[in-house]
Design a protein that fits this description.
The complex is a heterotrimer of chains A (362), B (231) and C (246). Helix content of chain A is 23%, strand content 36%. By secondary structure, chain A is of the alpha+beta class. In chain A, strand 1 (2-10) and strand 2 form a beta hairpin. Chain C has 2 domains: 2-96 and 208-244, D-Maltodextrin-Binding Protein, domain 2; 99-203, 3-Layer(aba) Sandwich (D-Maltodextrin-Binding Protein, domain 2). In chain C, helix 2 runs antiparallel to helix 11 (231-240). In chain C, 44% of the residues are buried. The chains are: A alpha+beta (362), B mainly alpha (231), C alpha/beta (246).
């Protein structure tokens, strides 16, 4: 577990943030300039807080009160930089083993064979960084950080400099990382899609301050955070289990507390758990169960709350069998339907609106 | 082909140039590091002093060497008493003169290389567990190798041609301090020595060209490695 | 900007009128003083370039723009004359000098040059500073003297050959070398050396400083040469230890 608390100032920018991370992936989320990379630098020892305390699993890396300030090379913090930063004069294999050399040859988090297998590096080992693609570089960077026996892994927007196919490729590897490696991971990103797909918890950072932290489900449901999490992107995240795959239609049937969903392009087997993000603007409301409609997902529930906002559109918070869901409709329709808390309604979700990117695998 | 005296001058030139570069290299790297990375009062003064041999007349440099490293000079006397190292009328004095005259070239080249190193790579190496000394040895040094090679080449070539400081500091002694330039000068001063002077001039040019080409070869190899391309 | 160009041109033009004298290194202190008294201000004051007579002669041979040449021995003036570079009829003997053996003031010794004198024993493993014995007049005189005294064989391997007589003087002044051979006038000019002994005049050719005007010299060069041979200049040269030719 990582405990972070620090104050740091440079020029006009001031950071004053505290948070803790649990197991799995913790996303450090916020807009550009929020201070996310600064936080990583302070954890890794590449910058020094004006005051604060940083510890990993009880091991104190920095404590201004106690006068502790471990130099970067003794912190055992695995940092995967946005640009990769592979050492150009070494081969991939030498890059991977670089941290190994300094951290003894103890058990470590993984062996070279394991990291190579996990990240698909087998064919790249004797190549040099200049001849690798962006995605290949990132995988090597991750492997290199892993092999240095880190107590915590920091990933700084690893997908930012990649194009769409590469992003998907690396996302896949990071999911495997999350599942196979028992080291806490801090994942910096400004993309909610990535965060929802990969992270277990979110720390929301804005202008150097923590606005909130908690599990992904919890955070995406908090209305007041909507502006920071992207109003346009507002929605809910549902945890479901694959009940069956219909090869004919290409649709998977997902079951959750509030009912069932039929969704295309789900790459999971029956019994596996998935996480589905449903954007508010893809949810419609009906007062009675419609017939003769193309929409396949019709869920019974009730209105939990109406968001108090100005403007032509309105977010309606729904309760579907205990699972929260958000629908964005016009204020005019809400009035005409007479929506009020407690009213039983049906939530309508088009299957095709839930695309590949919205489904995350546990 | 070559007379014994000419061969002696040639071998001495090579020996003096080699040792002048080898001995000044650690100092040059340290100075380049200080000028590139450290911050301290008087840094621009140090920069200026390092560059002095480039702009001062060589005879003036030779004079200062005499004052500092001569028998009665503060540094010369110390080195003699503590280590038995003397420079008076010896090839070591010629090497010292060449080292001092070539130092600015060496320091400049290494410093430029240091300035160009991506500090982000050094930070990455630190996060992987390398202490500052190890970062220097395993990341910085390999990346500045082309600059070091360039500087050594320049300093070596400068040493092959060094005259004014050498003859002022340790005079002209065949076998000890009579490098090629001093030998050539000697022939030009004697009536009828022009033909021999010309022979040695050609020899000097061949030598410098060979040194240049060899270093160009190594420089290219080092550049390829440092850029991360497959060799 | 235009003023700058005009000023630079004027400077160059007037400098172009100044006499250029090539003089043996051993003349430095005395000749500077003499030239200082020569009438003329600023850029018309004569300019003196000092060096070993051998290197100066070579430079003149290769076209250096000198107006007067004062050599420290007859050989190098003969050399230039043979190349046909002297203005006819202007050559004259100007000064004389004495050859002395010197030692650093911090290591004084009395060692009078005489046939077979124990100079090698005194030197042991150290070196004697001479101007280049193969070419520079002071070195040539020294070598001739040592040969005449029968000790050259013993010390020829212990010679530290300097670029000119003043450089040899410097080496002894810094106590880098325990002995050296320079002119009496050099020893007079340097407080950090003492005279160990004087070379008898018959051990070497007479030390004569010939002076001459060079072909194509600027107008006024002749007048300068006359001045250097004149009464005022002679007094100054004698003060520094030169003997003056009658």
């Amino acid at each position: 577990m990582l405990e972070f608390s620090a104050r740091w100032r440079k020029g006009a920018f001031a950071l004053d943030a505290s948070f803790q991370t649990g197991p799995g992936i913790t996303a450090l989320f916020g807009r550009s300039g929020a201070g996310k990379t600064t936080v990583l630098g302070l954890i890794a020892g590449l910058a020094r807080p004006d005051a604060g305390r940083v510890s990993v699993d009880g091991r104190v890396l920095f404590d201004s009160a106690a006068g502790v300030d471990l130099p970067a090379h003794r912190r055992r913090v695995g940092y995967v930089f946005q640009e990769g930063r592979l050492l150009p004069h070494l081969t991939v294999r030498q890059n991977l083993l670089y941290g190994r050399f300094f951290n003894g040859h103890g058990k470590g988090v993984a062996t070279l064979e394991q990291a190579t297998a996990l990240l698909g590096l087998g064919e790249l080992l004797e190549r040099r960084p200049a001849n690798l693609s962006g995605g290949e570089k990132q995988r090597v960077a991750i492997g290199r950080a892993l092999l240095a026996d880190p107590g915590v892994l920091l990933l700084d927007e690893p997908l930012a400099s990649l194009d769409a196919p590469r992003k998907a490729e690396i996302l896949y590897y990071i999911e495997r990382l999350r599942d196979d490696v028992r080291v806490p991971i801090v994942y910096v990103s400004h993309s909610l899609d990535e965060v929802v797909r990969l992270a277990d918890s979110i720390v929301l950072l804005s202008e150097g301050r923590v606005l909130g932290s908690g599990s992904v489900l919890e955070m995406t449901g908090r209305v007041e955070l909507r502006p920071y999490l992207g109003r346009h992107e507002g929605g809910a995240v549902i945890e479901a289990r694959v009940a069956g795959q219909d090869l004919d239609s290409g649709l998977a049937r997902l079951e959750f507390a509030g009912g069932a969903l039929e969704i295309p392009d789900v790459e999971a087997l029956p019994g596996e758990a998935v996480r589905v993000r449903i954007r508010a603007r893809d949810v419609s409301i009906a007062l009675s169960k419609p017939a003769g409609l193309s929409i396949r997902n019709v869920l019974a529930g009730s209105v939990a709350a109406l968001e108090e906002e100005e403007g032509p559109s309105l977010d309606v918070k729904l309760d579907v069998g205990g699972t929260p869901l958000i629908a964005r409709i016009t204020r005019k329709s809400a009035r005409e339907l007479g929506l009020r808390p407690g009213l039983p309604v049906f939530a309508l979700i088009k299957s095709v609106s839930i695309d590949r990117r919205s489904v995350g695998y546990a | 082909m070559l007379t014994p005296a000419e061969t002696a001058a040639l071998l001495l030139s090579l020996k003096v140039a080699f040792w002048s570069v080898a001995a000044s290299l650690p100092f040059a790297i340290a100075l380049a590091w200080l000028l590139s990375r450290a911050r301290f009062p008087g840094k621009s003064l140090l920069d200026a002093v390092v560059h002095l041999p480039l702009v001062l007349p060589p005879v003036v440099v030779g004079y200062f060497l005499l004052v500092l490293f001569g028998r009665r000079g503060p540094i010369g006397a110390f080195l003699d008493e503590s280590f038995g190292v003397t420079f008076a009328f010896r090839w070591t004095g010629a090497a010292l003169a060449c080292a001092v005259m070539g130092l600015p070239l060496l320091v400049r080249a290494v410093r430029q290389s240091l300035d160009a190193v991506d500090r982000g790579l050094e930070a990455a190496a630190a996060t992987l567990g390398a202490s500052p000394a190890w970062v220097f040895a395993t990341v910085t040094l390999p990346l500045i190798l082309p600059g070091i090679v360039t500087g050594m080449l320049l300093s070596f070539a400068r040493s092959l041609g060094e005259f004014g400081a050498t003859i002022t500091f340790v005079s002209n002694i065949p076998g000890e301090t009579q490098t090629l330039p001093l030998a050539i000068y000697g022939f030009t001063q004697v009536p009828g020595g022009d033909a021999q002077a010309l022979r040695l001039c050609i020899l000097s040019i061949v030598l410098s060209l060979a040194a240049l080409m060899a270093s160009e070869f190594f420089l290219r190899r080092a550049n390829v490695r440092a850029a991360g391309r497959d060799a | 900007m235009r003023w700058l160009v005009v000023a630079a041109l004027a400077l160059a033009a007037s400098a172009a009128n100044a006499q250029v004298v090539f003089a043996a290194a051993s003349l430095k202190n005395a000749l500077d003083e003499v030239v200082f008294l020569y009438p003329g201000e600023g850029n018309t004051r004569p300019v003196v370039s000092y060096g070993s007579s051998s290197s100066l002669a070579k430079q003149i041979e290769n076209g250096a723009p000198a107006d007067l040449f004062i050599s420290a021995d007859l050989d190098w003036m003969d050399y230039v004359e043979k190349k046909g570079l002297l203005a006819p009829g202007t050559r004259r003997n100007l000064l004389g000098n004495q050859l002395v053996l010197i030692a650093p003031r911090s290591r004084p010794v009395k060692l009078q040059p005489a046939p077979g004198f124990p100079i090698a024993a005194y030197l042991k493993n150290e070196r004697i500073a001479l101007a280049e014995p193969g070419s520079v007049p002071a070195g040539k005189y020294a070598r001739a003297a040592f040969e005449k005294l029968g000790v050259w064989e013993q010390i020829s391997g212990k010679v530290a050959a300097a670029e000119n007589v003043r450089a040899a003087l410097l080496l002894v002044a810094r106590a880098e070398a325990p002995l050296g051979v320079v002119y009496q006038t050099d020893a007079n000019a340097e407080p950090d050396v003492m005279v160990a002994g004087v070379f008898p005049a018959d051990t070497h050719a007479p030390i004569v400083y010939p002076a001459a005007m060079l072909k194509g010299a600027k107008p006024g060069a002749g007048a300068l040469l006359e001045f250097l041979a004149g009464a005022q200049a002679r007094r100054i040269f004698e003060k520094h230890g030169f003997s003056v030719s009658p």
